[in-house]
Sequence to fold (368 residues):
Amino acid sequence: MRLDQITFTRFIAALTVVFFHYGSQAFPLTIPYLKNVVTAGPIAVNYFYLLSGFIMAIAYYQPSNKTAFSSKQYWLARFARIYPVYLIALLLISIGKLKHPDIGTALFLNLTLLQSWIPQYALSLNSPGWSLSVEAFFYLCFPFILWVIYRSSLKKITIFALFIWLATQVTHTLLLNSDGYQAKNMLHNFIYYHPLMHINAFILGVIVGVVFKDKPEIMKVASRHSTTGIILTSITLALFIAFQENISDALGFEIALTNGQLAPLFLLFIIFLSLNRGIISRVFSHPWLVLLGEASFSLYILQRPVHGIYEKTFQKFIHLPEALHFYLYLLILVLISIASYKLFETPARRLIRSLTKGSKKAVITQTG
Fold:
């Protein structure tokens, strides 16, 4: 089973992260509500987690052949997927911080993908790498989640997943509105970057992926309304993101949409898009858009080192308006990401996976 139409959404999500970090002042992002949507990078990271869980289930859940799953081959495939480019980006950033007094600890935690577990180090060195630290924890947990799914009823697992999701939302909201919370303090880093505050999204994604494969009768009904579903969920998501501050004001307390609050809508969007066989699916499955989706991981993890190099070269010697500098940087980043995917990421992945003879190819390769 291939879901190429899903792949391009990863590029869109990664793009919002880049806009959040570097392009928030570039036109047309000066338009308030449009800015909220286009720079929704932290919320887009949560979409990555949901999509990752969904794709993992589609790729590896096989109720008719439960013994087919190999944890060793799975973990090797996951390592090969994320670590080579992650390591290159980390080393590029670290070169410029060799004299930092805490470089040793930060480098060790980043190399071992443990930085998000220690709040003060979550954003150390290559800051976007915090989400890979979280994702690595999900990859570690997935074989055990699959084992529980095989040995329990889908109803019980779904109730458990919903409980974890609800508990996370309550905990996040209470801590966000507590007296001890301040922007960028330890509590802030815990609720926004700690793996345990994001595992709810991954588990929900896995459950929905299992339902997608196990309940074709439900999916058949959903497929009839897939185009309408894509449009309605997209509009609803955009409205929630655009008017997040207004919603907080109306509720009388702060909310943040980064830890799974929008998971039901995101998952509906994923299902409708996966089932769609109309014009939206055909457009999103265009080879060039699929390529951008495949290159989205490099785009995401290389954004900071490429920006640092851009500042010391193009931006230093070429005088352009700030917005033009951003879009030139973005174009260079996209081109480098495609080159990285084609010339480094893919060959490195194949080399690492070839170390284990007889390693099975995943059903779906674009597993973010």
Notes: The CA atoms of residues 14 and 300 lie 6 Å apart. Confidence is low (pLDDT under 50) at residues 358-368.
